[in-house]
Amino acid sequence: MTHAVVPTHDAVSTPAWHRRSDEIAGGVWAVAVDEGRIVVEGLTKNFGPVRAVDHLSFTVEPGTVTGFLGPNGAGKTTTLRILLGLVSPTAGTATIGGRRYVALADPIRMVGAALEAASFYPGRSARDHLRVLCVAAGVPQVRADEVLAQVGLSEAAHRRVAGFSMGMRQRLALAGALLGDPQVLILDEPANGLDPEGIAWLRGFIRFFASQGRTVLISSHVLSEVAQTVDAVVIINRGRLIKQAGLAELTKSAQARVAVRTPHAGRLRRALESEGLVVEHTEPDTLLVEGDDSAMVGRLALRELVELHELCPQRSDLERVFLELTAEDRPPEAASPQLADGVAR
After folding, report:
1. Which of 105, 43, 31, 101 is closest to 68 using CA atoms?
2. 146 CB contacts (<8 Å, ≥6 apart)?
3. Of 237, 252, 267, which one is at a domain's C-terminal end?
4. Residue 165 shares a structural domain with residue 263
5. Are residues 162 and 194 in the same domain?
6. Within this chain, do residues 238 and 295 fall inside the same structural domain, yes or no?
7. For a designed S-S bond to 62, which of 36, 284, 315, 329 qualifies (C-beta 3.0 to 4.6 A apart)?
């Protein structure tokens, strides 16, 4: 059941779009826990003979940052577009707070979204771009300056967007998504074009946004950055769910390995396999041994008088887990059609 936002007496006269983030965090507005829950259930989308999304189901909880991951052609962008009412599903549902996007009473104050293909009129300033959006959305134009300050673009407010770098355009797209002070934030490749300082800023902003009990869903290929930002991941491939789990749970359950580099890789591999260990020969002088017992590998190398140049346990990072989970389900390159409008990404 979805509940409305209920203001206390201190906030009765304050419009929803004019709330300050610290007021929300301080409890001036009480938001029901399911208000920002995203539920995708049995979602399917066909584009002619191409099935971009295939009976996909997952849930994104409020108060969390969830990474939405998958190889190119996995169906991530199609799913996000369905969630935002830009594409109609063939079957299944995608809801926010229990409602489809088109059924939300005031969508800009519920959902903010910045898709990868954000476009701007090049001759318009950043402030004017946002003011046009304010008029279209029915929010006060003062919000333009407020969100520019939130994303660190106040000093560039008067500049034409044509002169913006990719990173500045990313910040401007995020500013547009924040105009309605939404409960849910959906971002497609938000770190594209950002420098290291910008990426660190974005990470902190997203974490703070979620700490207020709001919902963040991020689609990204930058797995190293995702691993530092998200609480949970939803991994899909070929339109199907591969795995949904908390980040800590996912990486903890992954198979640990020991990397060994030696000029006598063949001899060491035979010795390791004779002890029942599973070994992968990744390079002429490098082995990957399943398990986390580097001491055992070292003892076997000493017994066989094998010279070691490197002996290193490998932590189970998100990138490795992602590749392992999607490897068996990954189609040949020719079987990953990219539709002309990009919706099968």
Report:
1. 43
2. none
3. 252
4. no
5. yes
6. no
7. 36
Q: Which tokens go with 114?
A: 């910045």
**CATH code (residue 259):** 3.30.70.260
Q: Which domain holds residue 50?
A: 38-252
Domain count, the chain: 2
Contact indicator for 58, 235 with CB cutoff of 8 Å: no
- Long-range CB pairs of 149-152 (<8 Å, 24+ gap) are 150/21, 150/175, 150/178, 150/205, 151/175, 151/178, 151/205, 152/201
DSSP code per residue over 81-133: HHHTTSS--SEEEEEETTB-GGG-SSGGGTEEEE-TT----TTSBHHHHHHHH
- What is the block-wise mean pLDDT of the chain (345 residues), using blocks of 10 residues? 33 36 38 76 96 96 94 92 96 96 92 82 94 93 96 95 92 95 94 87 94 94 84 93 86 75 93 91 90 87 93 76 73 43 44
